[in-house]
Amino acid sequence: MPQAGSHDAARPGMPARRKRGASMGDVARLAQVSSQTVSRVSNGITNVAPETRQRVLAAMAELGYRPNSAARALKRGEFRTLGVITVTLSTVGNARTLEAISDSAAEQGYAVTLMPVAVPTRDQVQGAFTRLGELTVDAIVLMMEGHLLDVDVSLPRNVPVVVADADVGEQFMIVGSAHEHGARAAVEHLLGLGHRTVWHVAGPDDAYAAKAREAGWSAALREAGARVPPVLRGEWSADITGGWSAESGYRAGRLLAGEPHCTAVFAANDQMALGLYRALQERGLRVPQDVSVVGFDDIPEAAMYPPPLTTVRQDFDEIGRRCVAVALHQIAAQSPEAGRTSVDTVLVPRASTAPPRDR
Amino acid sequence: MPQAGSHDAARPGMPARRKRGASMGDVARLAQVSSQTVSRVSNGITNVAPETRQRVLAAMAELGYRPNSAARALKRGEFRTLGVITVTLSTVGNARTLEAISDSAAEQGYAVTLMPVAVPTRDQVQGAFTRLGELTVDAIVLMMEGHLLDVDVSLPRNVPVVVADADVGEQFMIVGSAHEHGARAAVEHLLGLGHRTVWHVAGPDDAYAAKAREAGWSAALREAGARVPPVLRGEWSADITGGWSAESGYRAGRLLAGEPHCTAVFAANDQMALGLYRALQERGLRVPQDVSVVGFDDIPEAAMYPPPLTTVRQDFDEIGRRCVAVALHQIAAQSPEAGRTSVDTVLVPRASTAPPRDR
DNA sequence: ATCGGCGATGTTAACGTAAACATCGATGGC
DNA sequence: GCCATCGATGTTTACGTTAACATCGCCGAT
Fold first, then answer.
1. Of A165, A157, A151, A152, which is closest to residue A132 (Cα–Cα)?
2. B250 in contact with A, Cβ within 8 Å
3. HSE (side-chain half, CA atoms, 13 Å) at B92
4. pLDDT value of position B134
5. Dihedral Cα A267, A269, A275, A281, nearest 10 deg
6. Contact across the interface for B116 and A98, Cβ inside 8 Å
7. In this structure, which of A225, A304, B153, B325 has its CB flanked by the most CB atoms within 10 Å?
8. Chain A contacts of B66, Cβ < 8 Å?
9. pLDDT tens across A97-126, in order?
10. B181 C-beta less than 7 Å away from strand C
11. How far is the CA of B309 from the C1' of D2 (A)?
């Protein structure tokens, strides 16, 4: 059987449409240099005579040459790629953090490969790690709750892991927001306005960030000698982000609206605060005249809520940047590390908080 | 079973750190087969005696072997990777679409590499394409306004491009929402409630989606013989997403609140509708008693707006899935195509619309 | 018994690149 | 004028994988 030249065969009169692009060898031939010289020009590093460089550049342009990163990666043993394992991008925080990661990585010449974990079971996570291992990334950023990692998720060996804002014990580097500090600031702001105490609409109880905010809230209350009301949790399990949703905030808000002595609420995030607004409004309660509300995140909409929401700003861009910085540092150091770095949060006072009036 | 420290032969004095993992050759040696047999097991395809397969599997496990995808890609000439060029992930639509793309791609065994274009100048876009070319992806999904591509952006040759919800003329395949249809549905819904006409708060005028919605709105009004009021555009250029922001909707809303005859507004997206709510509320106007509002997108919060927002739902998941399907099809067909497929939009009536009352 | 064929496995080569080493001519210090 | 040096360029090789081909038994048909 003759080499049945199905696709590559240059049909007569047809411009030979080769599947693979021009290689260094092709450029070298056209420029009449060795392929090593092409390599040097391509990497822009070592000494090449200006005239030669020009010739090579011209040849590259003519052939539309693009370096083959697979070959490059194979040769160099590094891939200039960061893997990001995500459970969902439907939260503002995750989306913004991912964007910051990819921007920052691109600046440093790294690509970002996405590894979605559709359903957060351990098997799925394991599978994602395995696939990432095959993708041979240089480091991994984990955007996922740590408890999913409890078991023996076998990481690719020698690949540094950075965890974005989750709790994974002592194994890895963690970059996270100062949730507790932010929550305290929210509570102190409300107490400072004269409220007797502050209620809390919490996020999902398996979420690290939710627990940290809750801890900050109750600690601040206790330190101020204020009563710690029961936590309201808008359980709502339709999907992974449900526990953080506006609907969940709305459900909690309906309970809260029945509490006659409640004059101030700290919601675990801005979406939940929005649900709270609606629940309060439905009962004829006004924000902030009857109830003050503080959120968390400072999503762009928060400033335009009716009324604009006092909230605690998280710096997702900084989280993303630091994740990349930490990852690259570990790649360079060739040694995984563990530890935690904290990104500041700051209270942004707006119109949803005011001194209490009797209800 | 103390099989722990077997690999990574710890030579005395040497910090045993092999940068590269075990290769097929290593596995082959341990299993006492040829590396080709390892390859066959690794790819699970051809005929290998069960006993041999077991031995190889065991060796792979012991060495923690992972196929090197760079070598594989080099050999096979395909990368099983989709590149996604994004300008921003800060819009719900982009984030959700990206998530759907990466989920869907992962299902088909493709990885997704992110190429952010930080500032949308042509040079930046050009740069992103160049880098993607180096990354040797098998196809590209473009999440970006088409007008940024006008000039001679040199695409990697023979790489199919799919455009997610933008207008790029005739060059590429486009997967987009039925914006016009959705906008018409919004207008018809409001007219059906008895409103004399419908005002429009439009998105940025360089956005394809914004223009399409605007076109649908005005066409529906004209066809119904209704007056077409001037378009309000919440110009706001702080950043790329500014034109779609709640703030932009608020600004437009403040103008609108001064129009005594305005009883119904169609906002270009849900965030802008929220800004509108605030502007109306500040003037003491109630939704929907004084003004009916319809949004676009159906973000999760919309159902919890005070009051819940009537809006037009976009199916971002479907857009993402189709982008991947189209991309893979073009890869298989080895021929770029052009054309457009449209993803349905559907009106979701909620509490923000009602029959008009005189103002 | 012989041979065709097939299933299991091994051998060779090539994918495109870059590190390491080799070559060659020019420059400059003595 | 000689040789050490250096800068520009070429040659060789290996990265890890897989396609293509080669080999080796073994079984069943003749």
1. A157
2. yes
3. 22
4. 73
5. 50
6. no
7. A304
8. 130, 133-134, 136, 156
9. 999 999 999 888 898 999 888 666 677 777
10. no
11. 92
pLDDT of residue B1: 35
Q: Would you state the pLDDT for residue A5? A: 32
Residue ranges of domains in chain A, CATH in brackets: 24-67 (1.10.260.40), 78-178+316-344 (3.40.50.2300), 179-314 (3.40.50.2300)
Contact yes or no for B27/B83 (Cβ under 8 A):
no
**Contact residues on chain B for A131, CB-CB shorter than 8 A:** 106, 111
Task: Give the residue-averaged pLDDT of A204-215.
Answer: 92
Tell me the pLDDT band of B220, cut-offs 50, 70 and 90: very high
Cβ–Cβ contact A121 with B under 8 A: no
Q: How far is the CA of B344 from the C1' of D21 (A)?
A: 53
Q: Which nucleotides of D are covered by protein (CB under 7 A)?
A: 7-12, 14-21
CB proximity B24–strand D (7 Å threshold):
yes
Question: Which residues have a Cβ under 8 Å from the Cβ of B76 and sit 6 or more positions away?
Answer: none
- Token digits of residue B114: 């992110």
CA of A212 to C1' of C7 (A): 62
Q: Which residue is the nearest neighbor of C18, CA to C1'? A: A75
Compute and round to an integer the Cα radius of gyration of chain A. Answer: 27
Distances (CA, A) of A122 to A117, A118, A127, B130: 10, 11, 8, 37
Q: Using CB atoms and an 8 Å cut-off, which of residues 9-28 of chain B contact chain A?
A: 17-21
Contact, B139 vs B132, CB < 8 A? no
Per DSSP (E only), the strands in A17-59 are none
Integer CA distances (angstroms), A75 to A66, A69, B71, B114, B235, in order: 16, 10, 9, 23, 50
Asked if omega into A288 is within 30° of 0 (cis), the reply is: yes
In angstroms, the CA A73 to CA A81 distance is: 10
Question: In terms of pLDDT, which residue wins out, B356 or B128?
Answer: B356
Q: Element (H or E) spanning B282, and its range?
A: helix B270-282
Instruction: Kindly report, residue by residue over A267-325, the tens digit of the pLDDT.
Output: 999 999 999 999 999 999 999 999 999 999 999 999 999 999 999 999 999 999 999 99
Helix (H, G, I), strand (E, B) or coil at A182: helix
Q: What is the mean pLDDT of residues B24-35?
A: 92
pLDDT score of A184 more than 80: yes
A66-80, A229-243, A334-348, B142-156: range with lowest mean pLDDT:
B142-156
Instruction: Tell me which residue of B244, B173, B239 sits closest to B205, measured CA to CA.
Output: B244
Length of chain A: 359
- Enter the pTM of the model: 0.89
**pLDDT tens readout for residues B127-172:** 777 776 677 788 999 998 877 665 455 566 678 889 999 887 778 8
A29 touches strand C (CB under 7 A): no
**8 Å CB contact of B21 and A156:** yes
Interface subset of A 46-75, CB within 8 angstroms of B: 64, 66-71, 73-74
- Per-residue confidence at A258, pLDDT binned at 50, 70, 90? confident
Residue B52 beta carbon within 7 A of nucleic strand C: yes
